[in-house]
Amino acid sequence: MGMTFQAISSELTPSVVSVEAMVEVDFFGSRRMQEEWFRDREQEDERPNELDDQQQEDGENQQDGGPTDSQQENQAPESPEEPRRSYRHPKVSAMGSGVVLSQDGFILTNAHVIDGASQGDVRVTLADNREYDAVIVGTDPSTDIAVLKIQAKDLSAVTVGDSDGVTVGDWVLAIGNPFRLRSTVTAGIVSALSRQVEIIEDALSIESFIQTDAAINTGNSGGALVNLRGELVGINTAIASRSGSYQGYGFAVPSNLALKVATDIIELGEAQRGLLGVTIASVNNAIAEELALEEVAGVLVVGVVETSDAYNHLQTEDVIVAVNDVSVRESNQLQERIALHRPGETVQLTLLRNGQRIQRSVTLMGSETLR
Question: Which domains does the chain show, CATH number per domain?
Answer without folding.
Answer: 5-13+159-268 (2.40.10.10), 15-48+62-70+89-149 (2.40.10.10), 274-369 (2.30.42.10)
